[in-house]
Write a structure and sequence with these properties.
- The structure holds two protein chains of two kinds.
- Chain A is an alpha/beta fold.
- Chain A has one domain: 3-Layer(aba) Sandwich (Rossmann fold), CATH 3.40.50.
- Chain A contains nine helices and ten strands.
- In chain A, strands 6-7-8-3-9-10 form a six-stranded mixed beta sheet, with helices on both faces. In chain A, strands 2-1-4-5 form a four-stranded antiparallel beta sheet, with helices on one face.
- In chain A, helix 4 packs across helix 5.
- The longest helix of chain A has 16 residues.
- By secondary structure, chain B is mostly helical.
- Chain B has one domain: MetI-like fold (Orthogonal Bundle).
- In chain B, helix 2 crosses helix 11 and helix 5 packs across helix 7.
- The chains are: A alpha/beta, B mainly alpha.
- Chains A and B meet through helix 2, helix 3 and helix 5 of A and helix 8 and helix 9 of B.
């Protein structure tokens, strides 16, 4: 099958906050193919470039070099045109994103959060958007919270609403940026459960997370990233029992 | 606060009013004269409220445009906004009022000598009330541009990212996600500005608008009873601001409710 995500020679640099005038290369030439329906988990130390890579996939970060192709829409680094802006929006509607800090819109109820994308971006009618939103809220088990404001919800509930908000756009891919890192330990399970269900339903997922239950149970591939490159890319069973690189082995002893 | 403290506080207020009453007595305040003209002064309140209410509307509009321009990456918009805020905040309000009332007609005249049609020149001769509204709007717009900018910048960056990741354009994101949250934050400072503007609207008395201060000084001078009528005017301003403060408090309480657990 043709890959649904195709990344070639991706580079991303940031200004170095510690040394004025110098640049930090956070992503140093990454290639990535993701098949439809695959669940990929990226692990690695803080600063390895995991989140930056994820954010380059939907252009919340603009890469400095390379190409990103999502479901047939290809964007090159460094180009600037009206068409490119349109392409970025198209990629974003195909790839939903869930953030570490939820980022629900605080001035909207749960339902309003979920219908916002379909109505504003996809120009759906209000009735259609509400029907879809209620379906997604039910799917994450929070239909009874449809009229609550985010501040009245627990972190786990907020994150499940955020997942519903992404799914209401009917994306082909979901990107998860450390979705459980900001949660109290007892709330992690409910979010992981939703993510596992999503994986079983065949959603293509790219996940930055160290949530080992999730990695063990549903990941097709685990990628260990270090210093802006992929060190190792293997199925979880292989990665955890018999890692190829010493770096991977060392890192795994820290998190397992 | 315990009851003893409240009682002492009340006593202080009573004492302040007693001292004021004695002072007025010693200064031989003409009470019947004051009461006689209170109705006339009261009619000036209409102009005061009219000028401030319209000006606050225009200044909010200017501030919104100014703040968005200030935060945009467009160098022209950014430059214009920065100049506007810097110049208006850096010059006295009185000078601005006179520039619009006395200076603009001169601009019209110059345009006419340059060959502009007469009707265009006439547009630059503004009557007193529009001049006052224009001056107050431009002045407060500049201060409020900074308020609005801070309000917009106080919205966490994750909000914009979440909106963009749904596929919204920058404009949709600003309108639907950022501004509604920022406006809620700037309501208290805008309320403060409205209260300040109610008092600053007395500046338009300089242009002969028959508002509260104009009436007080006009009649006060005629009978050499300025202190009496200025006191009446001051009390009117005071009452109006107290009413506005109460309304502001109610609005804030209502908005706060949606934000509480």
């Amino acid at each position: 099958m043709a890959p649904i995500i195709k990344v070639r020679n991706l580079h991303k640099r940031f200004k170095d906050p510690a040394h004025k005038g110098e640049w930090l290369e956070v992503i140093r030439g990454v290639d990535l193919d993701v098949e439809p329906g695959q669940v990929i988990v990226i692990i690695g130390r803080s600063g390895a470039g995991k989140s930056t890579l994820l954010r380059c996939l939907n252009f919340l970060e603009d890469p400095d070099e390379g190409t990103v192709e999502v479901d047939g829409v290809e964007i090159r680094a460094g180009e600037h045109s009206r068409e490119r802006t349109q392409n970025i929006i198209e990629i974003r509607t195909k790839a939903g994103m869930v953030f570490q800090s939820f980022n629900l819109f605080p001035h909207m109820t749960a339902l309003q959060n979920v219908i916002e994308g379909p109505i504003t971006v996809k120009k759906w009618s209000r009735e259609r958007a509400i029907a879809k939103a209620e379906e997604e809220l039910k799917w994450v088990g929070l239909l009874d919270k449809r009229d609550e404001y985010p501040i009245r919800l627990s972190g786990g509930q907020q994150q499940r609403i955020a997942i519903a908000r992404g799914l209401a756009m009917e994306p082909k891919i979901m990107l998860f940026d450390e979705p459980t890192s900001a949660l109290d330990p007892e709330l992690i399970g409910e979010v992981v459960e939703v993510m596992e269900r999503l994986a079983r339903e065949g959603m293509t997922m790219v996940v930055v997370s160290h949530e080992m239950h999730f990695v063990h149970d549903v990941a097709n591939r685990v990628i260990f990233m270090d210093g802006g490159v992929f060190v190792e890319d293997a199925p979880p069973a292989v990665m955890f029992s018999n890692p190829e690189h010493e770096d991977t082995r060392q890192f795994l002893t820290h998190i397992l | 606060m315990n009851r003893g403290y409240v009682l002492k506080l009340a006593l202080v207020w009573v004492a302040i009013f007693v001292v004021l009453a004695i002072t007025f007595r010693l200064l031989e305040f003409d009470l019947p004269f004051m009461l006689n003209w209170t109705g006339f002064l009261f009619k000036g309140i209409g102009y005061t409220i009219l000028v401030s209410a319209i000006s606050i509307l225009f200044s909010v509009l200017l501030a919104l445009i100014g703040a968005l321009a200030r935060l945009s990456k467009n160098p022209i918009a950014n430059g214009l906004s920065t100049f506007y805020v810097s110049f208006i905040r850096g010059t006295p309000q009185l000078v601005q009022v006179y520039m619009i009332y006395l200076g603009l007609p001169q601009v019209g005249q110059s345009l006419e000598t340059l060959g502009a049609p007469g009707w265009l020149a006439d547009l630059f001769v503004l009557p007193a009330i529009p001049s006052g509204i224009l001056a107050l709007s431009i002045n407060y717009g500049a201060y409020m541009t900074e308020t609005f900018r801070a309000g917009i910048q106080s919205i966490h960056g994750g909000q914009r990212e979440a909106a963009l990741s749904l596929g919204m354009t920058q404009g949709q994101c600003t309108r639907r996600i950022i501004l509604p949250q920022a406006l809620r934050i700037v309501i208290p400072p805008v309320g403060n500005d409205f209260i300040a503007m109610l008092k600053d609207s007395s500046l338009v008395s300089l242009m002969g608008v028959m508002e509260l201060t104009w009436r007080a000084t006009k009649i006060g001078r005629r009978y050499f009873r300025s202190l009496e009528l200025l006191t009446v005017a001051a009390i009117f301003y005071w009452i109006m601001t107290i009413i506005l403060q109460t309304i502001q408090g109610r609005i804030e309480a209502r908005l706060g409710r949606g934000r509480q657990r």
